[in-house]
Structure formats: structure tokens, C-alpha cells
Design goal:
By secondary structure, the chain is an alpha+beta fold. It has two domains: 138 residues, no CATH class; 71 residues, ACT domain (Alpha-Beta Plaits). It has eight helices and four strands, in the order H-H-H-H-H-H-E-H-E-E-H-E. A four-stranded antiparallel sheet has the order 2-3-1-4, covered by helices on one side.
Length: 225
């Protein structure tokens, strides 16, 4: 037996040595499941989407447990860890994450699986509690009023000066985003920050001679400045 054979044998035997027991594995998986259920509850409470995805929420618990099981297996044997690296490298996730908060909870679930699988249960509990506090505190923090979009359709371009007077009266700030002049009339799109809900603005703009239609639209984003 040469030196390389001795080295390979000692390396593999040393890497396979583990103090994992059935009790520690069961405890790790149970704690991971409990923390995953905790993430499930927090996501349900914080989620504001109209179409709440229960299947995605359930997958958060499953991902945490699967990740913990992978970490436990990697600790048991270096051969298994190398095999998992090769197996997981061919996995491709095609589902698009549109909501940033979904991405936060997804990483939270994966992190809990890694932390608990590594045996750092106290760290997993601490991270979960602190992250929950941060999410809820920032969620209840009031945001600035979002800008609104005013769309005006008129018979001619003479309405612009009258429209500016009304905008100065009812808005804090406005920016004319576009003017579209055609033979049939003119369309204007204005980004406006309102002093109120905009009801009086629409009424007064509609009374302007030459205005055929007016719409005030609020986008579903949140202002940051």
C-alpha cells in the first residue's frame, strides 16, 4: 500500500467519522420543522398580496427541512457531500420570484435549514426572532404618499395652461411626463404628488373647457423619497 492509498483511506475514514446519533438527527429535524412552521405563520401574517399562495408558504417549511437533511448528510460523509454537489448542480429552478419579500422568506427558510443542520439551533432561534422583529417594525413604518398619474384628454393644446393652474392649486409637485398632440386632440400624462385624495382635482379639471376625459391613477408601488 503506497502513501497515496494510505492518505486516501485516512482522509475518507476521518471525513466519515461523525458524532451524529439518531437522537440528535431527530431533534435537529424537529427543531427545523418548528422553526419552519414559525416562518409559515410569519409569512401568512405579513403577506399583503391579494392572491396568497399557500403552496409557496408550505414549500418554505419543506425547504428548511430538506436543507437541514442535506447538511446532516454532508456532515456524515465527504463522499456523500461530493455526490450532492454533483446532483444539485444539475437542478434548475425556473419559477420567477416577483415579490422581494418572497425572496427574503425563501432565503430565511434555506438559512434555517443550514443553521439547524449544522447544529447551531440557538443561532437559528435567535435569527428567527430578530428577523421577525425587524420585518414587523419596518412593515408598520409609514411610507410617504405615492405619486399619482393624471391622464387628461382634451380637444386642443390650449387646455395646458389652465391645467397647470389647477395642478399648482391641488398638488405639492408635478411633472409633465408626456404630451401627445393629434388631429383629434391632445393627451397629457402628469406625475403628481397630491395634497389630498385627488377628488376635487378631478372635478375641477373636468370643468375646464375642452377637456373630454380625465383619469387619476395610483400605482401599487411605495414611495421611498
Amino acid at each position: 500500500m503506497g502513501f497515496s492509498d494510505v492518505f486516501k483511506k485516512s482522509f475518507l475514514e476521518g471525513a466519515s467519522a461523525s458524532n451524529l446519533t439518531t437522537t440528535s438527527i431527530v431533534v435537529t429535524m424537529l427543531v427545523t420543522a418548528i422553526l419552519g412552521a414559525y416562518i409559515f405563520v410569519v409569512y401568512r401574517m405579513i403577506c399583503k398580496k391579494v392572491f396568497y399562495s399557500k403552496s409557496f408558504n408550505i414549500s418554505l417549511v419543506a425547504i428548511a427541512m430538506i436543507t437541514a437533511a442535506i447538511i446532516l448528510a454532508i456532515q456524515f460523509s465527504v463522499v456523500i457531500s461530493l455526490g450532492m454537489v454533483g446532483a444539485l448542480s444539475i437542478v434548475r429552478f425556473r419559477t420567477a420570484i416577483k415579490d422581494p419579500m418572497d425572496l427574503v422568506f425563501l432565503f430565511w427558510s434555506i438559512s434555517i435549514g443550514i443553521i439547524c443542520g449544522a447544529g447551531l439551533i440557538e443561532l437559528g432561534i435567535l435569527v428567527s426572532v430578530l428577523l421577525t422583529l425587524v420585518i414587523f417594525v419596518l412593515d408598520i413604518t409609514p411610507s410617504l404618499r405615492s405619486p399619482m398619474i393624471l391622464v387628461v384628454n382634451g380637444q386642443n393644446e390650449d387646455i395646458e395652461d389652465k391645467l397647470k393652474l389647477i395642478l399648482n392649486k391641488y398638488s405639492k409637485k408635478y411633472v409633465i411626463k408626456s404630451r401627445n398632440l393629434t388631429q383629434s386632440g391632445m393627451d397629457m400624462i402628469v406625475e403628481i404628488r397630491m395634497k389630498d385624495n385627488g377628488g376635487e382635482l378631478i372635478k375641477e379639471v373636468k370643468t375646464v373647457e375642452g377637456v373630454r376625459s380625465v383619469s387619476l391613477v395610483m400605482h401599487d408601488g411605495e414611495a421611498v423619497s
